[in-house]
Amino acid sequence: QVQLVESGGGLVQAGGSLRLSCAASGRTFSASVAGWFRQAPGKEREFVAGINQSGAPTYYVSSVAGRFTISRDNAKNTVYLQMNNLKPEDTAVYYCAADLTTYRLRTKDHKWGQGTQVTVSS
Fold first, then answer.
1. Rounded (to 5) percent helix, strand, coil in the chain
2. d(CA 95, CA 114)
């Protein structure tokens, strides 16, 4: 079982950038698809970006496509989310997850960690 710890959040002005990291433990991480999710106050958690085991392909929710980039370093057991041109509506707690397939990643109720808070001021 893969355990994940998110970091890198913070407070940034609109138009700014942040890079989130997700450190994984467990021997199956390199065999897992991985992704980022977010949950804004009063809203349901939503899928943001995903990446296959080898680093490609990647896929994004339409609201972040062109602004966010997901990547991974299997040697470091880490998944990243580079977020550029941040908007106030990106404010949320960001979580990462990993699973064996994209379908399971996006539909399974994962054992979520604490996440990392991203706050974008206008």
1. 10, 50, 40
2. 7
What contacts 43, CB < 8 A, 6 or more positions away? 92
Residue 119 is predicted with a pLDDT of 98
CB neighbour list of residue 19: distance below 8 Å, 6 or more residues apart: 8, 80, 81, 82, 83
Identity of the amino acid at 46: E
How does pLDDT run across 82-119, given as a tens digit for each residue? 999 999 999 999 999 999 999 999 998 898 999 999 99
Three-class secondary structure of residue 24 per DSSP: strand
What are 19-32's pLDDT values in tens digits?
A: 999 999 977 888 99
Q: 3 CB contacts (<8 Å, ≥6 apart)?
A: 24, 25, 26, 113
**Residue whose tokens read 């699973």:** 99
Question: How would DSSP label each residue in 43-77?
Answer: S--EEEEEE-TTS--EEE-TTTTTTEEEEEETTTT
d(CA 101, CA 44): 22
